[in-house]
Amino acid sequence: MTSVVPSGIDEVTAAWLSEALPGTVTAARAERIAEDTGFSALLYRLQLTGTDVPETVIVKLPAESEARGGMALLGGYRREFDFYRHIAAAAPLSVPACHAALISGDDFVLVLEDLRDWENADHLAGLSLPRARAALNALASLHAWSETDAEEASLQRFPVIDDALTRDLFLPAFTPGWQLYLDKTGQPVPDQVARFAERFGDLAPQALTALTERAMLLHGDIRADNMFFRDDALKIVDFQLAVRGAGAADIAYLVSQGLPTEVRRGKDRDLVHEYVGYLKSHGVNDYSFEQAWRHYRLGVALLMYMPVVALLTWDIVPDRSRRLCVTLIDRAVAAIEDTGALEEFR
C-alpha cells in the first residue's frame, strides 16, 4: 500500500495505482465526472488496464475551488477519510468498497468502487416514498450500530452536531443567505417562518443543544445525490459532514428537503414512526417516538440553514446548484409549517 498522497489527478498514475490496489495497473485513463453535483471535491472515473484490477474505479480528490478551503475548515476530508478507515468496514451501512484512503495535510484521496451500474438519485427531482423508506432503514442501521456496537474511539473522531464552528460561522451566515433566498424564490414565505428566520441566530442554538441529547453517528448530508440504487439495494456516499447527534436530525434533513413537498406532506409523523420501528429492529429500544418527533421537528427548522448558507456561493456554482438550493429551502419552509416545527422553540 502506497503512503504517497497525490496532489492532483496527474499524480494518480498507473504506478501509483499499482501500489494502492491489489493488482497491477499498466494504464489508467481519467475522466472528470459529477461536475454539476460535486462542488466540495473533484471526482474522476478511471478506466484501468492491468492484471487483477477492476475495469473502473472512482478517485476522489479535494476541490480546486473556494470549497477546498471550506472543507479544510470543516475537517470534511478528514471526516471522510476517518469514515472509510475506521467505520465503513464495521458499520452495517452499505457503501462503495474503498480500495485506498489516504490523507496528508490538505491533500486527500479516496479510490472507491465505481457504482456506474447503479442509479444515482437526483436531489433536485427528489426521492419517492419507497426510496425514502429504504434510506430510513439504512440510516437507522447506522445510528443503532453507533450506539450498540461501535468503538467509542472511532466515534470520537467525528464532531458533535453542536460545535463551535456551526455556532460561530454558519448561524451568522444565515441572515445574508436568507435575504438572497427571498430575492430568488418564487414561493411565498409564511409569516411565522419569516419571523423565525429573522431570529434564526437567537433560536437555532436551542435546536443544536437538543440534538446533542443522543450521540449517534449521523451521515450529516443525507441527500438524494448521495444515494445510489439498484433494484431494492441502496449504497450511500459522501461522509464529509458526518457528525454525532440525535438520529432524527438525519431523518429531518432527508425527509424535509429530500422529498418533494407534495410527496412528503402529511407523511412526516408516519415516517418518524417507521424510523423508530427500524431502530427497535436494530436493537435500540430507548428512543421513543415522542423524543424522535421532537428532534425531528427541531431538525427540520434548524437544518434549513444548510441550503440557505450554501446559497451564498451563488456566483461561483453551476446553475443546477443554484436551483437546488432554492428548491431545498422551498421544501424546508413548507415542512416547517406543515409539521408545526416552530412549536418546539421557546
TrEMBL record:
Pfam families: EcKL. SUPFAM superfamilies: Protein kinase-like (PK-like). Keywords: Transferase. Residues 110-281 form the CHK kinase-like domain. The keyword Transferase applies. InterPro entries: CHK_kinase-like, EcKL, Kinase-like_dom_sf, Oxido-Kinase-like_Enzymes. One of its GO terms (molecular function) is transferase activity. Signal peptide: none annotated. This is Phosphotransferase. It comes from Mycolicibacterium fluoranthenivorans.
